[in-house]
Amino acid sequence: MGDLNRLSLAWTAICGLRSQIRPVFFRRILGIAILLLAIPALSGFTFQGEKIDKRYYRIYGASHAELVKAVRRNAPRNGRAYGLGIIDFFPSYQTERKDGSCRVKKAEVGLRVQLRLPRWQGNKQVPRRVLRVARNFERVINAHEMQHVRIARRYTRLMKQRLLKMRAQKSCWTLRSNTRAMIRDLKKQHIWAHRRFDNRTRRQIRRLL
């Protein structure tokens, strides 16, 4: 999980003046099936909009055993994950003082996802049953990771909505503290949403090969 104290220090370093945009940044690494990690990343860089970057690892083989060997050799995490998604959220918001209180005036949340997916690059003359297994593996893993992307999109929208609905406070410091707590809570919910999805599909993923 993310380190809130370190994240708070990053906030302090990059906040600047009260009326400026204040970025918050954290990263999640989400893998297929049993791989699920969370690594905090501290940075003043902010990103708007959405970017999905797909990269592929090669699968091939003239037999089922060769196909499995290729997956174990080329898949992410030294073959321990069939697919991998690196999900970066980039929340930022702007505050203003009005009528003696501090409120969120504007908010945006950028989303950047890097996917590592299988792609068949074997000989077209392989046995039909091997090709069928490989194509099904490719299709299911791609669909699985894109569901992780949809989960991330949902939390991107939710984070923006909650930023805009933050209750005004007398102090901008208090508002920022409350915002950090809200983001921390969403981070936990986000991880559990991915875990629940992986748990529901674990048996299907294990049957692929």
Could you characterize what this model shows?
The protein is α+β, with helices and mostly antiparallel strands. It has four helices and six strands; from the N terminus they run αββββαββαα. It has helices spanning 4-14, 64-74, 128-164, 172-207, and strands at 22-23, 26-31, 36-39, 50-59, 84-98, 101-120. Strands 1, 2, 3, 4, 5 and 6 form a six-stranded mixed β-sheet that branches. Residues 1-44 have low confidence and may be disordered.
Strands, helices and their partners?
Layout: H1 4-14, E1 22-23, E2 26-31, E3 36-39, E4 50-59, H2 64-74, E5 84-98, E6 101-120, H3 128-164, H4 172-207
Parallel strand pairs: 4-6
Antiparallel strand pairs: 1-5, 2-3, 2-5, 5-6
Helix pairs in contact: 3-4
